Structure formats: C-alpha cells, structure tokens
Amino acid sequence: MTSGSSSSSSSSSSVRHHHRTHAAAATTILAAAVLVLVLLFRWSSSPTTAAAAAVVVEKKEPAAAAVTPPPPPPPPEKDEEVVFAEGQDHLRLAFRPRVLPATTWVLQTKEIEKRWAISQEEAFAACLERAKKCAGMCWHGADWTFFYARADDKTPGYERIPPDHPQASPGWKCYTRSSPPQAPLPKGCPTTCRAPCSAVATPYHLVPGGGEKYLLSVVRALQTIDHFVDVLVTPENKCGTKRCVEHAAKVLGVELRADGFQVCVDPFSKFAAAKLDADPQYLTFFLLGNDKLPSIPALGQISVYMNQFPFDGAKRVSRKAVAHLSTYDAVVFNSLYSLGWWDTFAAKSMSALAKTRTPRPIRHVVYPPVDLMVDSVDLNSPRPPHVVLIGRFFDGRQGKRHLAAIDAFELLKQQQQQRLATTRTPSSIKLFLVGARVPKFDGYLEKVRRRAANVGDVIVLADASNRQLKSILSNSSVVWSLTGFGRIEAEDPADAEHYGIGVVEAMSAGAIPVLLDKGGLREIVQRTNVDDAKPVGYLCRTLSDFARSTRDVFENGGDRLAARAHAESVSSDRFSREYQDLVHRGHMARFWQRLRRTIAGRTLRVASRRASNLAAVMVEFGADVTIPLVVKSNLLMLPCEWRLHVFHSAANRGFMERALVDIKDVRFTTLEKTDAVNSLFKTAGFWHLLEAEHVLVFSRESLLLRPGAHDFSSTHAYIGAPWHPDSSIYERLSRNVTVGDGGLSVRSTRAMLAVLAKYGNDWVKAHPEEHEDVFFARHLPSVGYRPATVDEAAAFAIQVPHPDHPRAKPVGIHQVWRATTPRQALLYLWTLIKNIDIPDDRGLADRHACASRSSSSL
C-alpha cells in the first residue's frame, strides 16, 4: 500500500508538474503573441513598413487562390462606403450611385468639408471621375493594385503599384483590404494628376490654325496659374498624342510646359450622355466649337464655351443642346463680329432659357492672342514699298483670296509705273504671299503661282520659316487682307474674316493695315477694343480702293507706332490675363452654384436716379463670370429703393453691359484711369456724381448674405469689415479708430464730403498712397462722426476670421477667399454661404414691382 500510495502520489505530482509546465508554456506563448501583436501594430503604423507588409502578404497568396471578382451588383438605393483606415487621416471609398455611374467610387476624407473635390485635393476627384474607373484600389488581374496617399498631405496624387512592388515610396501611406470591394473596378488607373486640374476639349483636328492657337493659348494661360490641363480629343483626331500636340504648339508659337498637360482620348458621346447635374470633373473647362450651341454639357466648376463662329447659322437645334448651353458660365468669341452673329442665330435659344428662368451664360469677347515682333524693329525709318498678305493657301469658304490680291496688286503696279514713267525711276513695289500649304489644295497653289509669275514682282512663299516671315514683316509697309471679297456678307457671314491674327502680327512689326471692309477686320482698323482710339489704316470695298489706299501709304507713310500699339493691346500676355481673370475664382465656384441656379435667370429692376437717395456703387475693371451673380445677389439683399451705379474701364465696358443686361436702369460710367481708384474716392466730385445721401460700396469680392445692410445706413456714417487686430494698419491709426475695410462698406455722402473739405488737399497731397478707407477712418472722428466699434463692424461684414468674433454671422463678407488660408476659406466660408438667405419667387416678384413703382412714380 505504501508502495502504491507512493507511486500514485508520484504520478499525481508528475501530472501536476506537467500541467504547470503546459500552463507556463501557454502563458509564455500568449505573452509572446501579445508582444508580437503589439510590435506588429506599431510596425504597421509606419507608412513604409505597412505598405511593404501589405505587399508581402499579397505575395504569399498564390495567384491561383485569388478571389475572382464577382460581377458588379445593381446600383444600391442609397450611398454606401467602405472604410479603409481609421484615425485622424482616415479615408473612405464612397459609392455614390445617385451622382456618378454605378462603377465609380470617390475618395473622401473624414470631414465632409474636406472632400477630395475641394482645394488642393481636387486633382484626385477630377482624375477619378474623369476616368470613371479608378478609386482607392483597382482590381488588377488576380492581384490587388494599391492606392497610396501622401502622409504629409502636401503632394496629392496616386499611382499604380503592382503586388510584387518591394515597398511603398517613402512618405506614402498604403490602404489595403483583404477582400475586393462590393463593385470591383476595371483594370487600370490614369497617371498622377497635379492639382488643380482643368481641361480643354476640341472635336476638331489639332492641326496648326487660328482656332487651335486660341485653344492651346488657353492651355498656356491655365499653366501660368499652376493648373494641370487635360487636352480632351476624340478618337478620330489626327493629333491624339502628347508629342503631336507639342509639335502643333511649337509651330503656332505657343510655349507649353510638357509636365503641365496630358492628352486624353475619349469619345464625346460619353460626355454628351452625362447628366447635367452631375458633379463637375474639373476646376475649369473650356470647349472649342463651331456650332452656336455646345455639343456636350459643361464638365467644370467654371466652364467656358469658345465659339469660333456659329457656322451652323439658323439651323434648328435640339432641346438637349439648349440644356447644354445652360450649364456653361460664359460663351467667349474672338471678335464683336462673331458675337453679333451668334446673338442673331442663338436668340431663340437664349430666349427659351430666359422664359424658363434657366441660367444663361455671359457673352464675352477675348481677341485672339498675337505674338509681337519683339526683335528690334525700326518703326521710324523709311521702308520699301512692299505689301504682305498672310494666310493659308486654299480656296473656298474663308479663303484668303490670293488671286484677287494679285489683281489688286496689278492695278497698283500699273498706277505706280505710270507715276514713275516721267522720272524714269524703276518701280520697286512687291507683293509677298506667305502661308502654309493645305492638303488637297496643291492645284490652287499652282494656280496662284502661275498668276503671280504673269503679273511679276509677286513672291509666293509656302511654308515659310519664322525667320523668313519676320524678315518680310519688318520690311513691309502695308499688310492686306481680302478674306470674303466678292461675297455678300449677309448671305454667308462665316466667309468673312472673323478677326485676322496675321494682320495684327504684321502691325506689331509696323505694317499699316489696308483691309477689306467686312467682318472682324473692321475692328482692327477702328480699334474697337480701345475707347476714343484713332483708326489706324484703311478699309476698302473694291480692288481700286486697295490700290489707291496702298499708294497713299507709300507716298505719305502711316502711323506705325499706332499700329504697334494696337497689336500690343491684343498680345498673348493680355490674352492670358483676360482668361485668368475670367476664371480666377474657379476654386470657389461651388459656392456660387446655388446662386446661379436661383437668380442667374432672373430679371431685376433698380430704382432710377431721381427716385432714390440710396446708391449701390460697384467699381470693376475685370471680367469675371461671377460678377452678375454677385451684383444680383447683393441687390436682392437691399430694399427696392436702392439704385445701381457701375464704374468700369473702356476695356471691360462691353462685358459689364452684357453681364448685367438682366438688371434694368443701371447707370454705367467709364473711367479713363483704371489705376487711380484710390484717388477717385478721395475726390469730392465722385461723391457729388452719385447724387445720393447713403452709399453701399461693393466689388466682385463682396457678397451680402442676408438683408440688413440698409439698416446700417441710418446709424453709421461709415462702417466696413473690421481689420484683424494684428494688422499693420493700426500702427498708423489712433486707438479710437478700429474699422474698417472699404471694399464692402456703407457710407454717408455728407460725412465723406466733410472729411474731404478739411483734409482733401494738404493731407491727400502729403500721403497720396494712403488707402482711401484708412484715410476716411482716420479723419471721421475729427469732423464729428463716431467710428463704428469692432462689434458693430463684425455684425456688418467680415473679411478675415476675427479672433474676438470667431462665430460671427455678419450681413456680408469681403475677400474671405483671398484673406484666409484654403482650409479657413473652406470651413469658414461654407458655414456662412450655406445659410445665405436667398429670396423666394414671391420675394423676387415683390421687389421687381416695388422698383417699378419707385421709377414710375416720377
């Protein structure tokens, strides 16, 4: 028994020891597992190692065992999303069937206000939506293609990384999933797109020509403000590669950054089928077209239709095309001539939009870009009697009429020979016909050469080099253009020259224009883009007129300096500035969309001059597509008794009148000096001209968010947005002066005149550079007017988020998008504008009736 008991005890002890050993081992294993998990978690939090781990995991899975992607499910009834990573930088892949096609996913950040469709991240959304097939990750055969986002969030972009990639690039975070998304995405993603993304599109072959130079010059203008540009062409385009576009740009003299654009080949039918209310794919979008209405809807937050000429004339258009037109912010033309005929042919379409209160685009003229002769050209020395005509060698519609030019030169030559016969001086006049060959028109070119040889002294240069062209232009006295000669303009208005880039290029070298009195050529001689400018050159109707006018230039000379000045007024640099000005607030366009849908199609009436002593004043020298929205919105926030006085320059006069055509009884005034606005406000004559007791000053950078500005006119002599406490302005002012910015301000005319009566001479002369708002704020207390407090000013308007009023809900805002960081602008401006108090239909009708009664009561 003892022995057995001892054996049993030993066995039990052995079992207990065995269990303790296993328990200790289990505990050790568990602790090790926990430690491994902790280390793995910390290790995986590193962007580089996490990406590498993801790749390694994918490499361990054999290709045969990969999950075959299921077919795309039917579009769900509501939005869905797949979260890829949690934390401060978490991203989600949002499935948005109600807005985008069923196979499209859109990346968003955690905060809706910071969607990838805004600000610096717009490149992502633009590229993703454009491709219609990319997202956080793409299905790539049997393996995954990973999506990478910069950890520092400073260089947005994405790239395809194959599963066997050794590791992610330094500084990138990798987001992966162990199973495919609910709707597997097709193979392939576009390359990285730099923010912000814009696009230009053309349905025509990108071969060197006037329209193509116009389009590529827009690309250059966008690149100068750091836009990455997609050049959209159709599969049928002969120039569907980047190399081809670069060659065309070089031939046309347009300098493009190779890393600033890419060529995308897509059938336009895909864009034409897109929903009109779909999210815009680009920041800005430009479409080139020869029909009066665009063939596809707008694809940008700000979109421009560049109509070369309405070649389809009075041809009927579809309702769909009219709907497409309503999605564009502006229709731009190369001359007033083209604009005039577009107004004629598109009148019914614009009227249809007006009747349904649908937004109508602004009509604007931006003359084609002209490359100036920057080489040293002597404009004062005598020149040989040479005539030049520039244009491609082809016959038919819009042909340059080379044969008619040779006939006119023959008349000129005969007259010149008769004149010189008595002096026995040999004639030295010559005609240079310079242009590019056109395929299938070799027979026409040979005909021109034979006729030139018969007449003599006519030099035909096909495909001349730039050096040859510059040499000819710098030695020519006269430049001709006979496009449209022998045709009746009203029967075929498209046959006339729409503008005449070659003519203006010759003028930049000092050649005097002698042009056919048709089409856009009139605008060159009459210099319609400059107010009160003297005409330069001659307009002719017959060949005899050409001979006589040219002989007059030979004998009496011409104003070569005026010719050069006109060319400078339509230079390539000026072209870029005009297009940049037109779309410079594209990144804020989403905040104007609600206004555009609500008020863009409305007609407003303001009180007449004698009906009211209240005047809203706008001083504007630019051409921005948001101007009519700002003006209309601000007027709707004022009682109907307010009238509108607009000061503008000669250059933007036409734009302002066309942009505000829906506002009746506006008083327009042209200012000769556009660089003297500051001194303008500091003259008594300006305030007397307004004939008002109270004035609201605003600009295109100002927006009233709700009614209430009128109330400040009865309580304050001057009130504007408060300056930031850290502003250097306060260093120059006394402590009792705290406000405020004059860009959006309410003022008493009597108070302004009182300040000017006391300080308008000596002080202004001693401090000419002082801003006018600082000038009035400084001196108002000394003439008996109480300055507004910061609290009062913050209730009126905000320019920058003020530390003492972080959640102010002012009546208006001024330059918020310029005076804040992009993040501040997004968060702060969105908070303000999403609650903008837009009057309903009844409010609009009541205001219109009120303004009509005020004007008719006189």
TrEMBL record:
GO terms for biological process: protein N-linked glycosylation. Pfam families: DUF5672, Glycos_transf_1. InterPro entries: ALG11, DUF5672, Glyco_trans_1. One of its GO terms (molecular function) is GDP-Man:Man(3)GlcNAc(2)-PP-Dol alpha-1,2-mannosyltransferase activity. One of its GO terms (cellular component) is membrane. Residues 399-556 form the Glycosyl transferase family domain. The keyword DNA damage does not apply. Residues 665-814 form the DUF5672 domain. The keyword Glycosyltransferase applies. It comes from the Eukaryota. Keywords: Glycosyltransferase, Transferase. This is Glycosyl transferase family 1 domain-containing protein. It comes from Chrysophaeum taylorii.
